[in-house]
Amino acid sequence: MNPIQLAHSPDADDIFMYYAINFGWVDTKDYQFENIGLDIETLNEEALRGTYDVSAISFGMYPLIKDDYALLRTAVSFGEGYGPKLIRRKDKKLKRNFKVALSGKYTTNAMLFRIYYPQARPVYMNFLEIEEAVVNGTVDAGVLIHESILDFDESLEVEKEVWDIWGELAGEGLPLPLGGMAIRRSLPLNRAIEIENILIDGVKVANLRKKELCARLEKDALVRISDKMLEKYLDMYASDESIELSKLQIKALDKLFEIGYKHGLWEFPIKTEDYLIPREYETLRNS
């Protein structure tokens, strides 16, 4: 067996997309996948170190690891009219230099937030701690991600949707790129292609057997939310749109990378398709 480290967040959509493989519902050929669950910012930091073979990442930091990791076409999360939310207490008015809790320096929402609110003072913390930090006044505001966007303390309200920030910066009515998967370039190309195809099958099977998989995840206490909220959340971030990058999603990623380049976050402009696994190799190899 070929062991492959598959690092992902403990968020419901990541668990959903990868556990069809873990449960043996997909032909994994001669690969043995080791699931590693870490919060997204830790995964981003480990990707910068080149730690894992395959890892979930925030799209907003991919240009920083492009030489060591290729982008995968599957297990992608985009917002369509929704996304992370900037929240504050209802009795709080934000000043220009407000103190804000973000889920990590390298997350996509943090990238867009810092561009839009250049005078705000970010404090980085685990996403599970952000809501309470806003409630108790440790920070003036915070950006909620993952399941937190669906249900938060009644003393809080939304100041700004990251979806709206994206619309103002991108200006093209594109879906909001949030996160995806990257694979280590040091793996042989034929292996990388096989692994990508296995992961595509995993996300496809997860969607085909959604009710069964959700019941199993809840029964085994592998997700933090359940019932209708889980179903709603997965419809947002783990749907048929997550199986494989579409042309529209690639266009949105190109726009994200363009915005980052124009604001000096990386040295060179990049195009998404230049950093995907070259599928033509598989055709040539088998011809």
- Domains, number: 2
* Top CATH class of the largest domain: Alpha Beta
What proportion of the residues form beta strands (DSSP E)? 15-25%
Helix content: 25-40%
Q: Which structural category fits the helices and strands? A: alpha/beta
Query: Number of helical runs?
Result: 10
Level-2 CATH architecture of the largest domain: 3-Layer(aba) Sandwich
InterPro entries: Menaquinone_biosynth (IPR003773), MqnD (IPR030869)
Keywords: Ligase, Lyase, Menaquinone biosynthesis
Catalytic activity: cyclic dehypoxanthinylfutalosinate = 1,4-dihydroxy-6-naphthoate + dihydroxyacetone
Family: Belongs to the MqnA/MqnD family. MqnD subfamily.
Give me a quick take on this structure.
By secondary structure, this protein is α/β, with parallel strands linked by helices. The protein has helices spanning 12-22, 40-49, 108-116, 130-135, 162-170, 189-208, 210-219, 227-237, 247-262, 280-286; strands at residues 2-8, 31-37, 54-58, 69-71, 77-79, 85-89, 99-102, 121-124, 141-144, 156-161, 176-184.
